[in-house]
Amino acid sequence: MKRWDLTLLVILILEICIFAYANPKFLMPRVIFGSINDIIPICIISLFVTMVMITAGIDIQAGAVVGLSSIIVGVTWQDLGLNIWVASLVAIIIAALVGLLTGYIVAYYQVQPMVVTLGGSFLYAGLALLISTLSSTESYKGISGFPESFVNFASYRIGGVLPVQVVVFLVMTAIAWFLLHKTKYGRKIFLIGINQNAAEYSGINTRFIIMSTYVLSGIAAAVSGILLTSYLGTAKSDLGATITLPIITAVVLGGTLMTGGKGSIIGTALAAVIIGVLKFGLPLCFRVNMQYLDIPVGLLLLIVISARALSNRPEVIVFISNLKKKNRS
Amino acid sequence: MLKQIINRYESKAFAFLILMFALVSVVNSDFLTGESVVNCFNDSVVFTLLAVGSAFVILTGEIDVSVGSVLGISAAVAATILRDGGSLFTAVTMAICVGAFFGLVNGIGVAVLKIPSLIFTLGTYGVARGMVYVYTGGAWVENLPAWFTSASHSYLCGYLTWYYALVLVFVIFVQFLLSHTKKGHNFIAVGDNYQGAELVGINPTQTKIYAYVISGVFASVAGLLFTSRIGFITPMSGNSYEMKAIAACVLGGISLSGGLGTLIGAAIGAVIMTSITRILVFLGLSSNYDNTITGIILIVIVVVNTIIQNREIVKSRREISLKRIAQKAFIDNQEGSR
Q: Of all helices (H) and strands (E), which one includes residue A144?
C-alpha cells in the first residue's frame, strides 16, 4: 500500500471512531448501510474516472450519463415494452457508446477533454430530458411501477445485512484495481499519462487506450444509474445532476494527479467512502443540517490538498528533516 | 487590417451569432422585431460578467469553477442588506468584498500553494455554496426594495437596458486595458508560457492572484445584477452557472489551455449561450431542447475548430520544411558551382 492510501485509511478510521463516539447508533449496520444509496454512484463512477484522469483526461459528463441511462431504462421498459433486464443492458450499451463518442473526439481529434465532456454534460442531460418527454408519463414525475424483481434488486441484503450495492461497489473496485494495477492495459494507461509521445513511440496504441477509458467510465455511470433507478423505483432524467463535482473531489482526494500519470484505485475508493461517511455521519451524529454539507466536504478537500501541497514543497521537506536531525543530536 | 479582423476568432463567433439570428428569422419573422434581438443581449448581462471574469482566469491557463457559488453568496449578502434597509453603497461594497475575498483565497491556493486550479476552486465552490445556506438559513431572500428591482427595467434607448449598455462599455474598456497595458499583457503571457513569462520578469504568482480576484469581483457584480433582475435570492441561486460561464468562454474562442482569446469573445459567447433559450421559443420548440442544443453547438464548434487548427499546423509545418529543402538545395547549388 502506498503512503497516501495509508493516510486515507487512517483518516477514514479516525472519522468512523469520532462518529461512533458521538453517536453509538452510527455503527449499527442497518443505519450505516441505510444511506448507502446516496453515495454509491459517486463511489462507483469515481473508480473509473480515476483511469480517465491518469491518462491526463477528465470526465465531467458522468453525472449526466447517470440520468440518461436511468431514463433509458424507464422508457425502453415502459414504452418499448422490453424486459427490464434487457432495458438495463440497452442503457449500458448506450452509455458505452456515449463514452466511445467522447473518447473518440478526445483521442483522435485531440480536443481538450474538459471541453468535450463539458459539452457532453449539457448534451446528455438535455437528451435525457428529451427522451423523458417521449414517454407517456409526465417527465417531472419520473417513470415508476417497475417489476418486483428489479425494485427488489437494490434493496436485497446478502445475509440479511450487506446491501447488494456494497457488493457491486466491492466487485467494481476489484475489477478496476485489477485492470489498472495488475494488467498490461493498466501499465499502458500510466505510461500515457506520464508521456503520451513516449508511449506512442514504444508501440502503444495510445489513442485507442485513451478512448477505452472513457468507455469504461460511461459504463460505470450506467451501472450506477441502473442501481439508483432500482433503489428509488423511479427512472428520472436528472438523477445524477449533482454528483459531478463530488466525483472529481473523490478522485483527487484519492491521490490522483490532475496532470496524469499517478493515481490509485484503492485511494479513490477510500476517498469516496470518506466523503460518503462524512456526508452521512455529520447529520446523524452532530445534527448538522443536510444543506450545509457542502462546507465540510469543501473544507476537507481544501485542507487535505493544501497540506499535501505544502508537505511536498522543498523548503518544508528541508525544515522537517532539520527538525529530525536536531532531535537526534 | 480587414483580413486580420475577419480571421479573429471573435469575429467568427459574432458571425455565428448573426447566422443563428438570421436562421431563426427565416423560420419565424417575428424574431426580427428589434425587441427580441436586443433582449437576447439584455438577458445575457449576468453571464457576460461571469464569463468575462472567468476569462481572466482561463487566459492565465487556470480554471475557476467557484464563480457560481461566489455569485450566490455575494448576491445573498447584498440582498439581505438591501432587504433590511441598508444603503446601496453598503450592499455593493460588501458584495464586492465577498467576491474579492473568495478570489483571493482561490488565487493563493492556486498560485502560491500550486494546487491544480480545478481542485482548489472545487473546494471553494463547496464552501461558498454551503455558506449561502448558512447565511440565508435555507430561506429565500425576498421583499427587496422596489427601486432596486425596477432598475433592471430602465432603458437607455429603445429596448436596450442600462445594465447591458454599462456592462458592454465596461467589458470593452477592460478589453482595452488587457490588450494595451503592460499589466494586461501579463495575463496572456503567463497563460501562454509560464516559464517564459517568469524569465522576462513577470511575476506569475501575482498575476494569477490578480486574475482570481478579478474573477471573484466580476462574479459578485454579476450577483448584484442577478438579484436586481430576478428580485429574490434562493440558496440555489447561481448553481451550475460556472459551467455555463466556461462554456461561454469556449464558444467565444478562449482556449482552456490559456494564453489565447479575448474578453469580447467571452461576451459574445455569453450572448450565444443565453439566446439559445429565447430562440427556441421562436422556433416553436419546448425549452427541453435547451441543453441538448447547447451541448451540440459546443461540441461541434470545438471539434471543427480543432480540426481546422490541426490542419493549419500541418500546413505550416509542410511549408517550413519545403522552405528548408529549397534553401538547402539553393546552398548546395551555390557550393557546387564554386
A: strand A143-144
Phi, psi of A60 (to 5 degrees): -110, 15
Chain B CB contacts of A57 under 8 Å are none
Test B129 with A258 for CB contact under 8 angstroms: no
Quick check: B63 and A119 CB within 8 A? Answer: no
CB A111 to CB B302 under 8 A? yes
Are B163 and B297 members of one domain? no
Model pLDDT for residues B311-331, shown as the tens digit of each residue? 888 888 888 888 888 888 888
Report the pLDDT value the prediction gives residue B211, as an integer from 0 to 100. 95
Q: Are residues A261 and A316 in the same domain?
A: no
Residue A278 or B104, more confident: B104
**Three-state SS annotation for B113-160:** CCCCHHHHHHHHHHHHHHHHHHHHCCCCECCCCHHHHHHHHCEEECCE
Q: Where residue A58 sits, what CATH number does that domain have?
A: 1.10.3470
- What integer best gives the mean pLDDT of chain B? 88
Give the minimum alpha-carbon distance from B290 to chain A in angstroms, rounded to a whole number: 7
CA angle A126, A128, A132 (to 5 degrees): 115
pLDDT, one tens digit per residue, over A66-105 is 999 999 998 898 888 888 899 999 999 999 999 999 999 9
Last residue of a domain, one of B285, B304, B320: B285
B63 and B14 together in one domain: yes
- For the stretch A23-42, pLDDT in tens is 887 777 777 777 777 788 89
Domain span holding position A307: 296-329
Same domain, A119 and A51: yes
Dist. CA B249–CA B195, nearest whole Å: 25
Look at residues B285, B311, B328 and tell me which one is the last residue of a structural domain: B285
* Same domain, residue pair A201 and A305: no
Chain B residues touching A302 at Cβ < 8 A: 109, 120, 123-124, 127
- What count of CB pairs under 8 Å joins A to B? 149
- Cβ contact (<8 Å) for B292 and A126? yes
Whether B303 has its CB under 8 Å from any CB of chain A: the answer is: yes
The C-alpha torsion from B165 through B170 and B172 to B175, rounded to 10°, is -160
User: Any CB–CB contact under 8 A between B135 and chain A?
Assistant: no
Tell me the pLDDT band of B338, cut-offs 50, 70 and 90: low
Look up the CATH number of the domain holding residue B266. 1.10.3470
Same domain, A135 and A250: yes
* Chain A residues close to B250, C-beta within 8 Å: 115, 118
**Across all residues in chain A, what is the average pLDDT?**
86
**Chain A interface disruption, residue of B70, B73, B302, B313, most A CBs within 10 A:** B302
In the Cβ-directed half-sphere of A281, how many Cα atoms lie within 13 Å?
A: 24
Q: Which domain does B309 fall in, by range?
A: 289-338
Asked if A309 lies within 8 A of B130 by C-beta distance, the reply is: no
| Residue pLDDT, tens place only, B71-104 | 999 999 999 999 988 889 999 999 999 999 999 9
